Amino acid sequence: MKVIIHDLGKEYDDFFSEKCDAMISADGKYAPCQGCFGCWTKHPAECYMKDSLKEVCRVIGRADELIIISENYYGAYSPSVKNVLDRSIGCSTPMSTYRGKQMHHTLRYGKHKLFKVLTYGDITPEEKTTFEFMAERNAINYGYENAKVIVLKSISELKEVSV
Fold it and tell me: What SS3 class is residue 51?
């Protein structure tokens, strides 16, 4: 299953929906994570908040390929994309295990193939390095075998890149 998370607005929804099995529009029309950990313990992989991200853990957890399209914010995801990722903590469990000689949460949905991030907007070399490191760490935490970051100078380049 291929899942796309993007912060580009409704005008891109049709473009992306043809290229994936599920799409999450990071439009900010949802509550931020409250840190209750209910999606870990009380009702696994389901957020108690009744909004568009209630099932986000299950959608992201089942993705073999997760593609994130986000504006660069000082070498990190945009706030709206970060909120989506925060709400997906239920993709793992509260238990810990070693993966690659490091301690990580046990995966609820198993291993996946590709974690790809496309970032756009002004980006310095230092921010690019930070973004690549963050994407690599996120890929490990979500159980992805590979991480890839593509920097777009402008959003118009998106149509030239394989999404």
Answer: coil
Interval 91-124: pLDDT, tens: 999 999 998 788 999 999 989 999 999 999 999 9
Domain interval for residue 55: 2-160
Closest CA to 95 of 35, 37, 47: 37
Quote the number of domains for the chain.
Answer: 1
> How confident is residue 162, by pLDDT bands cut at 50, 70 and 90?
confident
* Partners of 104 in beta bridges: 97
158 Cβ neighbours under 8 A, 6+ residues apart? 69, 118, 120, 152
Q: What is the pLDDT of residues 68-90, one digit of tens each?
A: 999 999 999 999 999 999 999 99
The CATH number of whichever domain residue 30 belongs to comes to 3.40.50.360
The answer to whether 132 touches 118, Cβ cutoff 8 Å, is no
